[in-house]
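Internal ticket - ligand job 311, heme C:
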Amino acid sequence: MLAGCQGPQSALDPASATARELARLWWVMSSVAGLVLLLVSVLWLYALFRAPRQYPQPQARRIQRRLLIGGGLLLPTLSVSALLFYGVNAARGMLPLGEAPLRLEITGHQWWWEVRYPQGDVVTANQLILPVGVPVDIEVSSADVIHAFWVPRLGGKLDMTPGRRHRVRLQADREGVFRGQCAEFCGTQHAHMILHVEALPPERFDVWLQARTQRAAIAPAPGAAGELFASRCALCHRVAGVSDGRRGPDLTDLASRPTLGAGVIANDAAGLRRWLREHQRLKPGNGMPNHDDVDDTTLDALAAWLEGLAP
Ligand code: HEC
Ligand SMILES: [Cu+2]
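stdout (structure tokens):
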């Protein structure tokens, strides 16, 4: 239980004003629930062990009515209304009231995250980079089934529904790496749908966004690797200036991401080569077909080119 109190994904270790309100709400609710449990247990023991008493009929009826109306109607109505009022107030910070200085779009896919920064026409995947101290409105949607967007240390969760756009406001109040996770079961690899969230000081965030907006043109992969990329990978993957696929993650800044497959494996030289060869074993059922027929030399050459994809 104590392990749940901290770590990159703990709602009890908030890193924003809204998340702090939600954590407080959690403590209030669990304390109230704990007290109720205690009270009920004491009453139960009392009822078990007290000496039986006989009441005359009318008095017994009155006691019953009092318990029914007081304990069965008034108590729950009042306590649930109080919690509702408190809860709605606590979540107000997440409401996108007015214009936020930054707006992003995140689309859920089985089983990865597409992240768009409309200002610079910048697209990335499975990572969300934010400026510290700036309210960010995030418009979430889905390309297939219902997913849910949740970065517990920054705020509450919100469903990502196909055909609809929901908006949530986040504002990190400190630098750091947080972890998001799809919070609505969306298929067998639902657990492998992790979002790397990083809050940078605003100057560094601007540099990050600028670098992606004005990146140098990327040359296609050379030789056989290039042919493989153009004839297959390009159908699903976009690499700015090289290909325009939309079914898989945008790979333009692939080398700058910490993981592959939305948190399945570290994105280093060995990890990338393993992903290309055994991604169906690492993440069974994911939307990328096997490339078992491709020889190792070509895959290695392709991996070497992919490793250079960074702004
Ligand atoms: C039919 C579409 C499709 C084809 C063809 C395809 N991919 Fe993918 N690829 C995907 C999907 C979908 C994912 C996301 C899988 C997941 O994480 O659930 C993915 C993930 C990836 C990733 C990990 C990206 C990340 O940020 O985690 C890499 C790298 C990659 N593909 C490279 C390639 C290469 C190289 C080729 C060609 C040899 C290729 N893909 C062919 C659909 C495709
Ligand atoms: Cu999910």
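Auto-summary: Residues 110 and 287 are 7 Å apart (CA to CA). The pocket of heme C (ligand 1) is lined by residues 111-112, 125-126, 228, 232-233, 235-237, 247-249, 254, 257, 260-262, 275-276, 283, 286-289, 291, 302, 306 (CB under 6 Å).
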